[in-house]
Design goal:
- By secondary structure, the chain is α/β, with parallel strands linked by helices.
- It folds into five domains: about 190 residues, 3-Layer(aba) Sandwich (Rossmann fold), CATH 3.40.50.300; about 130 residues, Rossmann fold (3-Layer(aba) Sandwich); about 100 residues, Arc Repressor Mutant, subunit A (Orthogonal Bundle), CATH 1.10.10; about 80 residues; about 60 residues, Winged helix-like DNA-binding domain superfamily/Winged helix DNA-binding domain (Arc Repressor Mutant, subunit A), CATH 1.10.10.
- It has a seven-stranded parallel sheet, sandwiched between helices. It has a six-stranded parallel sheet with strand order 8-13-12-9-11-10, with helices on both faces. The protein has a three-stranded antiparallel sheet with strand order 14-19-15.
- A hairpin with a 5-residue loop joins strand 20 and strand 21.
Length: about 625
């Protein structure tokens, strides 16, 4: 018997009404019809499949590409008292039967799985036996090669239609151009679907691009001026930590978040930020999925994203409560040059993919033709150092292998192996005499790391293995024995990644199966970056209108609050003569930098810099060796 969707919304989500197209989508699904839901970030996509699933008898199958997102949604449902389970790659195949049986007979309402899991015969057989009331394909843009996160395994999701022909399918995404939307409908074989598209426009967000040579100064200033919660997106884990430390040292409260910290640390940091104990979250793009904080007043991109889809999705985490918010992209010419260099240098070609795949198999000692369903702990830094690989290109190659279902890649905590020799050097000589098979590895360690008798020392196991011409497993075995014999203290290495190999090792043949797609997909990525850079350099078109046009919306009115619109408005009312007079008055009192003038004058920064340039050209002021302006 069906339950009332609105009462479910009140009971589990605490809301008294639906927003946007949610109600229309839910009613369509309950009628057994297919839906393509194109809703903006913060538009409540998950409610659109979770409520109709709860309103009916049976179970909902949810396909999602991101393990982190799957875990977030499963944990969120469980906190509400709703039974949900995730079929992630960490479940060994021999345990999968029991897990699937629990799904069938344990009153579960939601089963989350990756597109790769959907391809397994066992999973398909069990799905046919389940009482499925709805199939949800989340992040559906992944099915299109024109999408910003194309995942070839998503193309196989259409098999769900033949497995469960009578069950409605709902596909959901927050970032889809018209071309991507059409691909979703065709590739998923949706039958005359309702295409529900809420406008992607966020009228309460002021989009701005700030060109700034001293980016840290600008970041400090805008964070200090902003009242309320802030997210700062940075491109690397190291930079998140550096910026967090910088902001803490300059009067703000900040913490950092990235894929390499422990689950416990993530929970602690998120708790502090969600409860306003910390003002600023400095994060990589690993942060944000499934995080619901409606009162974020500012999102800063400290580096240029590689596509408008990612930028808009991340910027859209500002102002979900509808109150005024800002999305600022802080950049400079050096940033742009570095982005172009890294982006083009990091696109993996076929040769790179084959090399990385072969080295990966060698690293874990997987023989040609062998298949294993083991989950391997994987230290990325040790891997690239062991084989002298380029870090950016190698990581992107691993992501391509993941996207093409050769491996399954997930992030976990990183911790280097640490050892400390706790016996005298004389005792070591005795130990070497008695353990001659282990001696070559121990001698390499002693020669490589100074001070290892004095304090705990981080060591790199792959480097030792390479120098000793021994397998990594053998090095670990020797270290474990040394610890058992009381010669060393040993803090065993954890990893920053986990890897599942999804197909038997066949080297070039494995890569050749999708090689023709790689070049084309690289071209799509380059085109998306070029459009992102055009957005950054735009000085004429309202930022919101430009973004909406990218997603196929013809917005007729300017937003009035982006930097382009504000500049236009300020130009109309700015009294340049008065501003020039004010600048000269300030400089007659004392020499000042442009930064000091900007902080003391009541005018926008761009206007002040333009008037300063005019005064320089007219010979009324000059700049001294300290980069200060003074009266001529």
């Amino acid at each position: 018997m069906e339950k009332d969707p609105l009462s479910i919304l009140r009971t589990y989500w605490g809301h008294s009404s639906f927003k946007g197209s949610q109600e229309r989508i839910i009613q369509t699904v309950l009628k057994g019809k297919d839906v393509l839901a194109l809703l903006p970030t913060g538009g409540g996509k998950s409610v659109c499949f979770q409520i109709p699933a709860l309103a009916q008898e049976g179970i909902c199958i949810v396909v999602s590409p991101l393990i982190a997102l799957i875990q977030d949604q499963v944990n969120s449902l469980r906190k509400k008292g709703i039974k949900a389970i995730a079929l992630t790659g960490t479940i060994p195949f021999n345990e999968l039967v029991d897990v699937l049986d629990n799904c069938m007979f344990g009153n579960y309402k939601f089963v989350y799985l990756s597109p790769e899991r959907l391809q397994q015969e066992l999973v398909q057989d069990k799905l046919r036996q389940m009482n499925v009331n709805l199939v949800a394909i989340d992040e559906a843009h992944c099915i299109s090669q024109w999408g910003h996160d194309f995942r070839p395994a998503y193309l196989e999701c259409s098999i769900i239609r033949s497995l469960l022909p009578e069950v409605p399918i709902i596909a959901l995404t927050a970032t889809a151009t018209e071309q991507v939307a059409n691909d979703i409908i065709v590739n998923l074989k949706l039958t005359t679907p309702l295409v529900a598209k809420d406008s992607f426009i966020r009228k309460n967000i002021s989009f701005r691009v700030l060109w700034e040579e001293d980016k840290r100064y600008r970041l400090k200033r805008i964070c200090t001026e902003t009242k309320g919660s802030i997210i700062v997106y940075a491109g690397t884990r190291r930079l998140t930590q550096e910026l967090s430390q910088f902001l803490n040292g300059n009067g703000s409260t900040a913490t950092y978040f990235h894929g390499g910290i422990t689950k416990k640390e993530k929970e602690q940091k998120l708790h502090l930020w969600l409860n306003d104990r910390i003002k600023i979250m400095v994060a990589t793009n690993a942060f944000g999925m499934g995080v619901d904080k409606p009162d974020v007043r500012l999102v800063v991109h400290y580096q240029i994203p590689d596509c408008i889809e990612n930028y808009y999705q991340e910027a859209g985490r500002a102002g979900r409560d509808g109150a005024p918010a800002k999305a600022l992209l802080v950049t400079n010419r050096a940033d742009e040059m570095q982005l172009n260099h890294q982006f083009h240098g990091a696109l993996p070609d076929i040769h790179t993919l084959k090399k990385v795949y072969q080295k990966l198999n060698n690293y874990f000692q997987i023989a040609y033709g062998e298949y294993t369903d083991d989950v391997f702990k994987f230290s990325f830094n040790d891997f690239i150092e062991a084989y002298d690989l380029n870090s950016y290109r190698t990581y992107n190659a691993l992501k391509v292998l993941d996207q093409n279902s050769v491996i399954a890649l997930s992030e976990s905590f990183s911790k280097k192996t640490k050892i400390h020799f706790v016996v005298s050097k004389d005792r070591i000589f005795d130990y070497l005499e008695r353990n001659q098979k282990s001696a070559p590895i121990i001698q390499v360690i002693l020669r490589t790391y100074g001070g290892i008798f004095d304090f705990e020392t981080k060591i790199k196991v792959p480097l030792i293995a390479k120098k000793a011409n021994a397998p990594i497993a053998r090095v670990m075995q020797v270290l474990e024995q040394l610890a058992k014999d009381g010669v060393i203290t040993f803090d065993a290495q954890e990893s920053d990644l986990e890897i599942n190999f999804l197909v038997p090792r066949e080297d070039d043949y494995t890569i050749n199966a999708f090689a023709n797609k790689i070049e084309k997909h690289n071209e799509v990525k380059i085109e998306k970056l070029e459009k992102m850079l055009r957005y950054v350099h735009n000085e004429k078109v309202c930022r919101s209108r430009e973004i909406m046009a990218y997603f196929g919306e013809n917005e007729s009115d300017d937003c009035g609050i982006c930097d382009i619109c504000m500049r236009r408005s300020n130009t109309k009312i700015l009294d340049t003569e008065k501003l020039a007079h004010d600048i000269l008055v300030h400089l007659s009192a004392e020499k000042q930098s442009s930064r000091a003038l900007i902080e003391s004058l009541y005018a926008d920064e761009r206007s002040i810099l333009l008037v300063i340039r005019s005064l320089l050209e007219d010979g009324k002021i000059r700049i001294n060796t300290k980069n200060e302006y003074e009266i001529c």
